Amino acid sequence: MSDGAVLHVRGRVLVGPQDVRDELWVVDGRVSFTRPPTAGDVRTVTGWVLPGLVDAHCHVGLDAHGAVDAETSEKQALTDRDAGTLLIRDAGSAADTRWIDDREDLPRIIRAGRHIARTRRYIRNYAHEIEPGDLAAYVRAEARRGDGWVKLVGDWIDRDRGDLAACWPGDALAEAIAAAHEEGARVTAHCFSAESLPDLLAAGIDCVEHATGLTEELIPVFAERGVAIVPTLVNIATFPDLAAGGEAKFPAWSAHMRRLHERRYATVGAAHDAGIPVFVGTDAGGSLAHGLVAEEVAELVKAGLSPAEALSAASWGARAWLGRPGLEEGAPADFVVYAQDPRADVRVLADPRLVVLRGRPVG
Ligand SMILES: [Zn+2]
Predict the structure, then answer these.
(1) Which pick of 3, 190, 310, 338 has the fewest CB atoms within 10 Å?
(2) Distance 209 CA to ligand 1 centre (A)
């Protein structure tokens, strides 16, 4: 802290959903459960403490038209931070945001490199647009550029067909995902429809974004293989508008998008009930605003997760899944303090009392 005071938080420190401590201290930017021997000032804050929130599907450095400049990227990251999001899994960005890693005041980012899409089968200016013969080489390159993840666009509208269609043949996927795994990276894929999922599963996919196409047949396979989903329900809420916009030219696609939207809560609820790991992602950075993590947690509760489960999808569970610590002795002091218990009502997340990043109060 800039004034040299030791930060002390008293109240209910939610180390895990059931593991609650009475207080913590910040010592040299790290969490400690032991009062430090200090003659200096102590600043005490009271409240309910969660580990820094996780947005597992966010795009920093993008807007609706493609890459944005550093100043805009900084604003996006600050908006996420002030909402309590201190760890971002960036699900694809056309901008080089590596400079953010040198900024103590900005959230930590786990990058998936740049989206990899089939030629003319994704939002313009976002992705490497390639053909299947090049998929494995691109996946390997993005695995090396990123922070342990690679992002594929698994399905998108096929304008000739007038509906969503899978983007990649199974053999190309198998070779590409094996290449990522060789590089120590996990692979996730944007998928709206059911059609793209079996080949991705067979190829060893690690996670699926949106996953609106999950079916009764596919859900047990996801669960058995531990393939996670990041539903991005705040994004799926925009499907009816997208469908209305495409109605005249692509009526089958519009109808398909509406069906996926209508059953979104049932899909996510069934996936969760079957044991599929579900994580919070807002899909900020394309057409959606940053800082929507509280809204997405509330959406998961609507889909049938308990408040504690939905919180875990944005904190304890998400951090473990991404290999990052929570509120452990000696862990970096990244946490958020709330005036009320978020386990009683997740809407509390919308109004953090204090955000602490790398041991410093921010925002
Ligand atoms: Zn996205």
Answers:
(1) 3
(2) 8
Residues with CB under 5 A from ligand 1 (ion): 91, 283
CA of 321 to the centre of ligand 1 (A): 19
Angle value at C-alpha 55, between 53 and 60, nearest 5 degrees: 125
**Tens-digit pLDDT profile for residues 236-269:** 999 999 999 999 999 999 999 999 999 999 999 9
Rounded to the nearest angstrom, the distance between the alpha carbon of 284 and the centre of ligand 1 is 7
| CATH code of the domain in which 77 resides | 3.20.20.140
**CB crowding 332-355: b at 16 or more within 10 Å, else e:** bbbbbbbeeebbeebebbbebbbb
Distance 76 CA to ligand 1 centre (A): 14
CA-closest candidate to residue 222, choices 236, 233, 208, 209: 208
Whether residues 168 and 307 share a domain: the answer is: yes
Residue 79 in any domain: the answer is yes
DSSP letter at 70 equals H
Q: Ligand 1 centre and the CA of 189: distance in Å?
A: 10
| Spatial distance between the Cα atoms of 115 and 123, rounded to a whole number of angstroms | 10
CA 140 – CA 192 distance, rounded (Å): 24
When divided into structural domains, the chain yields a total of 2
Per-residue pLDDT reduced to its tens digit, 134-158: 999 999 999 999 999 999 999 999 9
CA-based nearest residue to 152, from 206, 202, 220, 76 = 206
What gap in Å lies between CA 279 and CA 271, rounded to an integer?
Answer: 12
CA of 111 to the centre of ligand 1 (A): 12
Instruction: Name the token pair of 155.
Output: 């399905």
